[in-house]
Predict the structure of Alpha/beta hydrolase.
Amino acid sequence: MKKTVLFIHSAGPQGPNEGSSNLIAYLEKELSDSYRLITPEMPAPEEPKYDQWKHQLEKEINKLHGEVIVIGHSLGGSVLLKYLSEQACKLTIRGMFILASPYWGLDDEWQLNDFILPHHFAENLPPIANVFLYHSRNEKIVPFIHHQAYAKKLPQATLRQIEGDRHLFHDGLVELVDDIKGL
């Protein structure tokens, strides 16, 4: 039986070669033998609103049963963290993988109030066996300081600091695939 992976994409256009599309295609190719990748279209990705994304995420989570792996890319990661810290979750989360996610409220450029996490969000997360954080050191879209802020709040997380300036991971992310398969 294949393991279930729920992937929540980034904000912005999600067409071919845009947003998370190439990363999703890479994961589908690399994981298809043993994993079922669920990649819902999130509402209005070019003008995201937390309530809309929360509602869609809730619908997707309610379709799932048993043990799952969750991946959030950029905005998708911050939405996953906010949702899981504010809502009861009946699933067993085997692993949570957060890629290049903004830490809303951290600095002047990242101030969408809908997405700001409560100060003690980490204490309200359900038990998650494995947490991984990925971020490029020289990233231009979401500065590396956001990764460092999450690392402080989630000291149990395994940190993957990626060389370079990738945000969309168009060519994939070998470390992510290895970590998923290593669970």
The mean pLDDT is 97.
